[in-house]
Task: inverse folding
């Protein structure tokens, strides 16, 4: 298995970074497995069974006093205990029946509906407090097999599994794998590759200009990439010669490389399909072609083109240029969104405010910044208020293995053999998000683009490094899938009025979704959190109505603001505060009205 070696600058039209080489290592480290198990335990947050151990229902083994075995008890006693359990469950709208007695003597009860572990533990605590004969009571938790791919270079894909800078994909794969979803990669086309075999559906070559196309013809139904190499000066005076980038192939592999096939790399949404739409050729690509690509990929009509038989629910555009969002691009984005397609774009690599990067500055898109392996903003990544969130883009300056490994081609000009290579750039961050969006649509096909964006923002985790103006946080795959399908397993607590001052703040004693409302122009809400040493409080505020504008603040006991988020109406506010001290601190989270009234959800995690 080979890796490409090159030293090329990215064309202006691409939001891609440096291409470098590195050495892959076979196998998966124990750290990967351990982290996956940790994520899985966090995900498994509900159960429909309760374990209750009664002191008179078990006895020490005659050969080993430390081993308990079952002892029969009377039917009357069981009926009494089942009645007590059902009384405790009544307020939760649940009932229980006895399933069996375990080998240690504990009794297993099954409910008619699942409860969260928090709710189930409260029932258990209530039972134990009312019956001295109960030795212990606890939720009968579910465990799941953890999927760990056997792809030979998976251990080199830190961006998928590492705790600090990765997207925590293994737990997400237990929830969704992308089945039934098509992702359009609007890029340079694709090269057939063993790790993409069976992953591609029919696309289109949108390049209307023969010189740009480089394949001898204009628009046609063949989106394969002939290579985008150029000679010195071909793209303008002083522009250097460049080898072919095979950029679209690299992006496609991150999204949906075949997984668990004992070969190469793992894709994020490995049961999704990639639809290659070729819009970039020699010296870049034209806005008009890119716009047509968006419309056609999402199932719209483009004159002279056949109907797209497999419209895409997700569009990935790892490309960009300068200037304000043009009308052509905005109209195409609006067209795609009107058909329920989510558009994910790169923020750009100029280390500047992304408001100067098109199409990242267009309305309705998910703009993605890039982070390095430490969870900090990559040195090249654009930033700013228009950025939605960040994802791994890599930084190969210290080591090529700190880049993003994916499928590629070994040819320097025309196509060569299959290979794999490390790239860096917001081009690489973007398909991480597009892949997770495919997982989200797989889990909830009826989701809208706005719901997808809100779930991505609310589920993103706090940056472990420094990433100012990088959106709501780092992409968290499992949390995003959970967010689009429900409340993330957190219990919901209701705001209690009045809580309009720090002194009257509602206490939130454990992570929860707070259901609150702003009822008047003078209303504001405070919530008190005791944050342990070494923990980070992450607060996410989502308005029920897109016309409302509430802001979010984290304050100390004297009322000084420690962190804040003041986004525009309808946008998700997210902020965090890390307790770097050696003891707990008391914090106050404030929801403050700017305009409008109505309901909101405040997600508090630490």
Result:
């Amino acid at each position: 298995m080979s890796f490409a070696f090159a030293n090329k600058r990215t064309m202006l039209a691409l939001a891609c970074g440096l291409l470098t080489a590195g050495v892959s290592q076979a196998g998966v480290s124990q750290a990967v497995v351990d982290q996956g198990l940790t994520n899985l335990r966090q995900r498994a947050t509900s159960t429909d069974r309760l374990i209750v151990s009664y002191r008179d229902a078990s006895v020490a083994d005659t050969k080993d006093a430390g081993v308990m075995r079952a002892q029969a008890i009377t039917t009357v006693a069981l009926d009494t205990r089942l009645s007590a359990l059902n009384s405790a469950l009544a307020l939760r709208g649940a009932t229980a029946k006895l399933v069996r007695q375990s080998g240690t003597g504990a009794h297993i009860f099954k409910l008619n509906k699942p409860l969260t572990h928090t709710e189930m533990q409260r029932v258990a605590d209530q039972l134990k407090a009312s019956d001295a004969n109960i030795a212990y009571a606890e939720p009968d938790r579910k465990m799941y097999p953890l999927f760990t791919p056997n792809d030979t270079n998976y251990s080199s894909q830190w961006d998928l599994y590492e705790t600090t800078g990765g997207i925590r994909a293994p737990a997400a794969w237990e929830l969704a794998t992308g089945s039934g979803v098509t992702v359009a990669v609007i890029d340079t086309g694709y090269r057939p590759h063993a790790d993409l075999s069976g992953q591609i559906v029919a696309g289109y070559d949108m390049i209307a200009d023969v010189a740009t196309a480089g394949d001898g013809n204009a628009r046609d139904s063949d989106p394969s990439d002939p290579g985008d190499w150029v000679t010195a000066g071909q793209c303008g005076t002083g522009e250097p010669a460049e080898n072919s980038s095979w950029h679209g192939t690299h992006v496609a592999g991150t999204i949906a490389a075949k997984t668990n096939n004992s070969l190469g790399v793992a894709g994020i949404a490995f049961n999704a399909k990639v639809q290659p739409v070729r819009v970039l050729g020699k010296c870049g690509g034209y806005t008009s072609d890119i716009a047509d690509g968006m419309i056609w990929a999402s199932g719209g009509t483009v004159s002279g083109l056949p109907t797209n038989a497999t419209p895409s629910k997700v569009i990935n555009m790892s490309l960009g240029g300068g200037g304000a969002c043009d009308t052509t691009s905005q109209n195409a984005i609006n067209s795609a969104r009107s058909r329920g397609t989510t558009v994910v774009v790169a923020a750009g690599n100029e280390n500047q405010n992304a408001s100067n990067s098109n199409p990242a500055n267009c309305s309705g898109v998910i703009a993605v910044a890039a982070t390095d392996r430490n969870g900090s903003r990559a040195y090249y990544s654009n930033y700013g208020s228009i950025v939605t969130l960040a994802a791994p883009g890599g930084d190969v300056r210290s080591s090529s293995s700190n880049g993003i490994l994916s499928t590629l081609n070994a040819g320097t000009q025309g196509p060569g053999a299959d290979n794999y290579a490390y790239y860096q750039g917001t081009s690489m961050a973007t398909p991480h998000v597009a892949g997770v969006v495919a997982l989200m649509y797989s889990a909830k096909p009826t989701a809208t683009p706005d719901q997808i964006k809100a779930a991505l923002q609310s589920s993103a985790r706090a940056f472990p490094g420094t990433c100012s103006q990088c959106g709501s946080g780092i992409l968290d795959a499992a949390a995003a899938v959970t967010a689009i399908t429900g409340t993330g397993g957190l219990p919901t607590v209701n705001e209690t009025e009045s809580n309009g001052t720090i002194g009257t703040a509602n206490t939130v004693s454990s992570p929860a979704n707070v259901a609150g409302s702003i009822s008047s122009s003078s209303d504001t809400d405070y919530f008190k959190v005791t944050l342990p040493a070494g923990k980070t409080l992450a607060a996410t505020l989502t308005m029920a109505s897109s016309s409302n504008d509430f802001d979010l603040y984290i304050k100390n006991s004297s009322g000084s603001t420690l962190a804040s988020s003041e986004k525009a109406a309808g946008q998700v506010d997210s902020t965090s505060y890390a307790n770097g001290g050696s003891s707990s601190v008391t914090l106050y989270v404030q929801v403050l009205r700017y305009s409008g009234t109505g309901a909101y959800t405040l997600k508090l995690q630490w």
